[in-house]
């Protein structure tokens, strides 16, 4: 497989990944999270990431087989000599964009998790304050007035 075609395929997969990340952000910013959709997006992302990793490994092998050193400079030189420097740069741009989207999605997940944990902590505190006496009646709760007097 030629380097130009490989870079084109990687760019297509990165665009698909960016679309999935945008969909994930939409789900995460919705008032009510659609757990099934979020799970489906996560599965699709995992498949794409595995495919991208396989393609990147193949690209590195092609680069080394052509006699270029490993790393960024070798990749750039290989792309320049193969006449596909623009495709390589587009692939880098797409990689940076998906990394930013992925970081944003991670931050959104952290915000949601923190919010959910605070809500659970609050519910737990409220539940602990609702004590019942041996007869099953709600006992006196601190800070509440007894209105039966």
Structural notes for this entry:
It holds the Pfam family FlgN. Belongs to the FlgN family. The chain has about 150 residues and is mainly alpha-helical. The protein has a single domain, classed as Methane Monooxygenase Hydroxylase, Chain G, domain 1 (Up-down Bundle), CATH 1.20.58. Helix 3 packs across helix 4. The chain starts with a helix and ends in a 20-residue tail after the last helix.
Short description:
The chain has 4 helices and no strands. It has 149 residues and is an all-alpha fold. The chain has a single domain, classed as Methane Monooxygenase Hydroxylase, Chain G, domain 1.
Task: Using brief descriptors, characterize the structure shown.
single chain, 149 residues, mainly alpha, Methane Monooxygenase Hydroxylase, Chain G, domain 1, rod-shaped
Secondary-structure map:
Blueprint: H1 3-29, H2 35-65, H3 72-81, H4 85-129
Helix pairs in contact: 1-2, 1-4, 3-4
Family: Belongs to the FlgN family.
Coiled coil: 38-65
Pfam family, one: FlgN
**So what's the CATH class?**
Mainly Alpha
Low-confidence stretches: none
> Helical residue percent?
over 70%
Derived from helix and strand composition plus strand pairing, the structural class reads mainly alpha
For the biggest sheet, the summary is: none
Give the overall silhouette. rod-shaped
Average pLDDT over all residues: 86
CATH superfamily: FlgN-like
CA radius of gyration? 26 Å
Q: How large is the share of residues in beta strands?
A: under 5%
Continuous helix count: 4
The CATH topology is Methane Monooxygenase Hydroxylase, Chain G, domain 1
* CATH-defined architecture: Up-down Bundle
Q: How many independent structural domains?
A: 1
**What string, H for helix and E for strand, traces the elements in order?**
HHHH
Number of strands: 0
- Give the N-to-C terminal Cα separation: 87 Å
Keywords: Bacterial flagellum biogenesis, Cell projection, Cilium, Coiled coil, Flagellum
GO biological process, one term: bacterial-type flagellum assembly
Function: Required for the efficient initiation of filament assembly.
Protein name: Flagellar protein FlgN
